Amino acid sequence: MNTVRSGRRSSPAGKLGCTTESLRRWVRQAERDLGKRAGLTSDEHERLKMLERENQELRRANEILRKASAFFAQAELDRRPK
Questions:
Q1: Is the pLDDT of residue 12 over 70?
Q2: Which distant-in-sequence residues (6+ apart) come within 8 Å of 81 by Cβ?
Q3: 8 A C-beta contact, residue 44 and residue 33
Q4: pTM of the full structure
Q5: Angle between helices 42-79 and 20-33 (to 10 degrees)
């Protein structure tokens, strides 16, 4: 990890078979996970993604229920004798 930060010409990324940018991102994320850098940890990031997916699913369910409610309310109004 120190070799990456020092900017030496020999590329640890090349030895690992990845790009320099990928390795840089992994190092930054590892520092976040260890509390050495500000930002979301890997666990927090996963939790956030899960909550966003759940929120999207609930919004879709609410929209379906709203449309069904309007449909049945209109059907009830149409059914009543005038």
A1: yes
A2: none
A3: no
A4: 0.64
A5: 90
Q: For residue 3, which amino acid is it?
A: T
CA atoms of 68 and 79, how far apart (whole Å): 16
| Alpha-carbon torsion (24, 29, 32, 33), positive or negative | negative
CB-facing half-sphere around the CA of 52: CA atoms within 13 A: 6
DSSP state of 17: T
**CB 4 within 8 Å of CB 23:** yes
Q: Tens digits of per-residue pLDDT, 22-74?
A: 999 999 999 999 999 999 999 999 999 999 999 999 999 999 999 999 999 98
